Amino acid sequence: MLLGALLAGQAFANAPVAAVHALAYPLGGHYHIPHGLSNSLVLPSVLEFNTSQASDLYAELADIVVGESVSGSNEAKTAAMIAALRQLIEDVNLPATLREAKVAESDLEMLARDAMLQQRLLINNPRDVNFEDALFIYRAAY
Questions:
Q1: Selecting from 3.90.950.10, 1.20.1090.10, 1.10.760.10, 1.10.10.60, what CATH number does the domain 17-141 have?
Q2: pTM for the full model?
């Protein structure tokens, strides 16, 4: 765990966290969901949201996450990577949706408002995120 924490810290120093963490924080704060789980709950939906602006970067990651056997456009590679992440979430038996994590659907607007307070993280996102976008992502993750 210590090695994992060290490597994560080094990664954050080189590639600042963005919308995934901004949307994860309110889940931890209001629902006491562990930070790693709260990130996994929103990661696929944030990646899908960002695809229009970051598919070239995500395609590079797809070659690592899925393997170099993935072919097609950057968008196709990105979709394959997101599918692989969703499969990993299922394989390790984590809740895959906010609903499964017992998040109330009626709280999604409150969570989106709270996520907007994390501007220091949101400015790092490859695509601008406003309140409506945050709510869209939470709904997609629900």
A1: 1.20.1090.10
A2: 0.91
